[in-house]
Every structure is written in C-alpha cells, then in structure tokens.
Amino acid sequence: MLGAIIGDIVGSRFEFDNHRSKEFELFTAECEATDDTIMTLAIARAIMETSKAVDSSDRSDERDELYCKTLEELSVKYMQEIGRRYPHCGYGGMFLKWVFSDEPSPYSSFGNGAAMRVSPAGFEARTEREAIRFSRAVTAVTHNHSEGIKGAEATALAVFLARKGFSKEDIRRRIERDYYRLDFTIDCIRDSYRFNETCQETVPQAIEAFIEAESFEDTIRTAISVGGDSDTLAAIAGGIAEAYYGVPDEMRLKALSYLDRDLREIFDEWYG
Fold it and tell me: Is 198 helix (H, G, I), strand (E, B) or coil?
C-alpha cells in the first residue's frame, strides 16, 4: 500500500503538467496526497475491519463467501466515510457523486480509479484466488464494467505475484496471458502517450513501467515519465514495486509526512 501512496504523492504535481523524463525531484512542497491515497487507505480500512469481523482461521467456502460479501459492504462504508472528509482531493465527477450518495450503486465505470486503490487486496490475499476475489469485491461496488474489474484484478494479481517472489518475466507472462498485451516499451510510447483515465490505457503502461524498472524508486520515476495521468500510473506501478522490492526508509518517512493524523492512523494500523 505504501508504494501506491508514494506513487500518488510524487506524481501529484505532474498529473496536469507531465514530465517526460526520469530526472526530477521526488518530493516537493507542490506534492500532495490525492484521491489515489485516500481511497487506497479506505480499502485498507475495509480489509482490516472485514478481517476482524470474519474468522480468518476458517478456510471453508462459506467463510470465503461471507468474507467477500462483508468486504463489499465495508468498502462502500469506508470509501464513503473517509472519502467525505476529503471532498477536494481530486475525485472524478461520477465517483464524487457516489461518495456523497445516500444510495450508492455501481455505475459501470472502467476508469483507472479501480486499479489505483486495489493494492491492499494483493497484500492481504493468501492465494491467487483470494487476490482475484478480493479485488472484485472492492471494485465492483463502483467500477462494475468488465474493463474496470479487469484492471483492478490485473493490478492486485501482479501485487500478489510480486509479493510471493515471482520473477518479472513470470508476472509479464501471466498478465499477457490473462489480461493485457505488453508488446511495447516505455521508451517507445513516451512521446505519443496522452492523458487517459481508463484502466485499459493505464494499467498496462503502469505494469510495464514496473517490469522495466531496476528498483522501487526507478519504478516511480519510470511510471511518471510516461506522462498522462501521472499520479495514478505511479500509484499502480508503485504498489506492485513495493511488493517486489520493498520501500527505501528515506522515501517511506518522507511520504508519511504528507498524511494527516487520520490517514496516518489507518496506515499505522495496517502496517502494525
């Protein structure tokens, strides 16, 4: 989850002022935690509360069904509850309406918000099946279009595989087999890539940035250098990179300074 938060914070100042190079200062006074961070932490809260409510020692199918149903309900609860505290953090128009709706319903979105918030599901999962089911549970409550589900699932599964020690080539093959063609390089698309808020035009680019990078920091720099929706690209890539590399202490401490007390409380409980 921290990787996604760092990607969001570092990328926040470039979302509408793209920087198509890996050379830039990571953290500045212009950086901030946006909706990517807020919703990632909301999903983390939903997962933690679900795990408290449902017996984790029970591995039955009935328990799995109850867990996913509870996770769906609590994802709605905490995305709304936490999201309403930050009305100006950069939500898209439809999602903003959903956050403040008295009767929140999914709205057939395939926006990249589905993928930017899902990394906690990949960290919580004990199996590939759980990574897929958890990602669907936290996604379909808003982004129930097949491409939205697909983007979140690919991201959560990449996080899970990276966390379990799979190689980048293994991850590439799995993503290409089941989700997206990665038949491009970042260098080849950098000059032509344009701002895009869909999963299908953001998730493959973020995964490729992770695959090509040489470290956690290089992943963030590579993702931002693509241009486009910089904070979300870096949040998606950063979540996978954290699972694969871990996060340098200096970057961790600096990123946490951008979180207010309420957000930091969720973060501390998750990592505790």
Answer: strand
Query: 188 to each of 121, 162, 205, how far by Cα in Å?
Result: 31, 25, 11
* Average confidence (pLDDT) over 32-54: 96
Distances (CA, A) of 34 to 12, 161, 180, 214: 7, 27, 27, 26
H or E stretch covering 221: helix 216-225
Alpha-carbon distance of 152 to 115, in angstroms, equals 4
Kindly state the tokens that stand for 246.
């871990």
Domain, as residue range, for 145: 2-261
CATH number of the domain within which 146 lies: 1.10.4080.10
Q: Which two tokens stand for residue 17?
A: 């002022």
- Segment 248-262 shows an average pLDDT of 97
57 pLDDT more than 80:
no
**Rounded Cα distance, 18 and 42, in Å:** 27
CA dihedral in degrees (76, 79, 80, 82; nearest 10)?
140
Residue 272 lies in a domain: no
Helix, strand, coil percentages (3-state) for the chain, rounded to 5, are 65, 0, 35
Give the single-character DSSP code of 164.
T
**pLDDT tens track for 100-136:** 999 999 999 999 999 999 999 999 999 999 999 999 9
Residue 62's pLDDT band, with cuts at 50, 70 and 90, is confident
* Residue 107: inside a domain: yes
Domain count, the chain: 1
